[in-house]
Amino acid sequence: MASSASSSGPTPREIAAQHREKELRRERSRRAVIGGAIIAAVAGLVLIVALLFKKNNDKTTASSQGPAPAYGNQYGGVTAIQGGTLKKAGGVTVNADTVGPAADRQATPAPSGTTTTKKGQPGQAIVYVDMACPHCAAFEGAYGDYLKGLVDEGKLTVEYRVIAILDQPANKNYSTRAGGAMMSVADKYPEKFVPALRAMFEKQPNEAVGSDSAEIKTILHGAGVPNGIDAMVDNGDFRYYTKFTNALAAHEAVFGTPSVFIEGKKWNAQDDFKKFLEETLAARKA
């Protein structure tokens, strides 16, 4: 009987096919290694960028205490006075952690630092704002020039207390970041504070989104604030001061913004503001 025509070993074609399969496996393995390395590198880069962004934009500062700005007082405010500048203050250290708990929301006392002035003296206005608050932006748009006129005439001082009731992860704690930036302006460039406040409200971002430090610096530069402000914004200077002001406001039952006090009397937002202010000042004693 004739023997089988097949040989005991692989044919040349089979050997070539095996070599091709081995090369394909090596190539797939090499590509997998390279692909994994690229993914890891990209992931690492994304993480670095995210950490840098968080460092520059998201932190509210680990510290709760520090010296007040050069023009900041012990109540968390900076006061606009005649001459287009701020009242010199400073010399105090603030600490948000030492402020008492938030007050009962039904309480309505005048906040600390309010006073009653005499006729012939500049009256006192205290204005609580949150840099993310659209109602504060509307108030500034409606009455900013009016208040500035009274200040320039020596009829009024306006103390701005910047708080942060609208901080949230979604807006990267914009209220505190922007508040710290405003207090940095007050510290180094007091004559630019009011123009910077106006510009920040005019270009206010959506309160739920906020904006990054680069945009804050751009707005401040547009208001005439020198480039020396940049490092202060990037470093989060005076964010603790905003944190302190916020804690003190809550402790003293100031929960909404804008909250405006004239000679210690709170303005009801349903009333005519100019009439309220003028009548309050007119009622002062000589």
In brief:
The chain is of the alpha+beta class. Helix content is 45%, strand content 12%. It folds into two domains: 51 residues; 221 residues, Glutaredoxin, CATH 3.40.30.10.
Q: Any idea how many domains?
A: 2
- Following the backbone from N to C, one meets helices and strands in this order, namely HEEEEEHEHHHHHEEH
Q: Which strand-content bin applies to the residues?
A: 5-15%
**Can you count the helices?**
8
**Average pLDDT over all residues:** 87
Termini, distance in Å?
138 Å
Oligomer: single chain
CATH third-level topology of the largest domain: Glutaredoxin
The appropriate CATH architecture of the largest domain is 3-Layer(aba) Sandwich
Number of strands: 8
Could you describe the 3D structure shown?
By secondary structure, the chain is an alpha+beta fold. Helices cover 45% and strands 12% of the residues. The protein has a 6-stranded mixed sheet with strand order 3-2-6-5-7-8. Strand 7 (259-262) and strand 8 (265-266) form a beta hairpin. Helix 3 (174-188) packs across helix 7. The termini are far apart.
State the main characteristics.
disordered N terminus; alpha+beta; single chain; 8 strands; Glutaredoxin
Task: Give me the secondary-structure topology.
Elements: H1 12-58, E1 65-67, E2 77-81, E3 85-86, E4 93-95, E5 123-130, H2 134-152, E6 156-163, H3 174-188, H4 193-202, H5 213-222, H6 230-235, H7 239-251, E7 259-262, E8 265-266, H8 273-282
Parallel strand pairs: 5-6
Antiparallel strand pairs: 1-4, 2-3, 2-6, 5-7, 7-8
Helix pairs in contact: 3-7
